[in-house]
Amino acid sequence: MIGTRLFDGPGPFVMGIVNATPDSFSDGGRFLDPGAAVDHALRLAEEGADAVDVGGESTRPGAPPVAAAEEIRRVVPVVERLRARGFPLPISVDTSKAEVARAALAAGADLVNDVRALADPELARVVAEAGAPVVLMHMRGTPADMAARAVYRDVVAEVRDELAAALARAEAAGVARERTILDPGLGFAKTAEHSLAILAGLAALKALGRPLLVGPSRKSFIGKVTGARVEARLPGTLAAVAVAVLAGAAWVRVHDVAAAREAARVAAAIRDAVPAAGPR
Ligand code: HH2
User: Fold this and answer.
1) Is there an atom of ligand 1 within 6 Å of 190 CB?
2) What is the pLDDT of residue 144?
3) pTM for the model
């Protein structure tokens, strides 16, 4: 079970991504086979991940929806096999579907990562009944239409207010506030400029009083700045990880765990350093 340390501690904690999908934007098809996904999760644990996030549906812009039965077929065997091998880390299931969450939790998953922040009342019920921790991520619309909804006057304030509403909705559905983690959803219903502005203003989201998770890994806002292709965005990802941790993010969600863990630890050491009195 996910420990209180992972909620109350300052972090930084690293969530390693395991995409059991044919079409994820950066690693689609590599871990669709459950054996390959399990091996990848074990590798991420060796690299120092604090949790792994197993997903069976790509949320890249315009991704086609996946039926619940297919998503269960992709995700549940991975969770089952990891638990059968005594996998030591919390396992998160990256889903917006109640049936998938229910099946994954029954198979041994510990928390739910929902890019739609429990917009589906049935999923909220599943999470509340299980007493499972949940990541509430900010998005508008769905991956199919989110790009058209990336219209903000003040992106940081609006994301903060919409996350506050998501938190209130979760609590109304019976999800304990203490079991929530909030995520501004970089790249979801956001242009590159919006994602950069969120990182610049991330500290303002700490006012919501819950741990923050940030997922910059390999995303297009990084490519927009550096021109790097998806597979060459690690340096840009590490810059974003460092900025997020410095601004107070407790969690980062990444593909490249070993490198991100080092970047996050250095950023946290800087965050926590007490400046020595310099020469006058
Ligand atoms: N980003 C992606 C998927 N899930 N969950 C949270 N909480 N935060 C994020 O930023 C986030 C997320 C997209 O990345 P990835 O899983 O690599 O790609 P895909 O959705 O194409 O599988």
Assistant:
1) no
2) 85
3) 0.96
Segment holding 14, helix H or strand E: strand 13-19
Residues in the chain: 280
Write down the residue that tokens 């604090």 correspond to. Answer: 50
Decide whether any atom of ligand 1 lies within 6 Å of the 195 Cβ: no
Question: Which has the closest alpha carbon to 75: 46, 105, 114, 47?
Answer: 105
Residue nearest atom 5 of ligand 1, based on CA coordinates: 115
The pair of three-digit structure tokens given for residue 78, joined into one six-digit string:
């991975």
pLDDT in tens, 94-148: 999 999 999 999 999 999 999 999 999 999 999 999 999 999 999 999 888 898 9
- Which pair of structure tokens corresponds to residue 128? 């509340």
- Mapping DSSP onto H, E and C, the string for 121-170 reads HHHHHHHHHHCCCEEEECCCCCCCCHHHHCCCCCHHHHHHHHHHHHHHHH
Question: How far lies 103's CA from each of 71, 127, 194, 218, 256, in Å?
Answer: 10, 12, 35, 29, 27
What positions carry a catalytic annotation? 219, 253
Nearest to 51 by CA among 111, 132, 96: 111
- Residue 175 — very low, low, confident or very high, per pLDDT cuts 50/70/90? very high
Q: Is the pLDDT of residue 4 over 80?
A: no
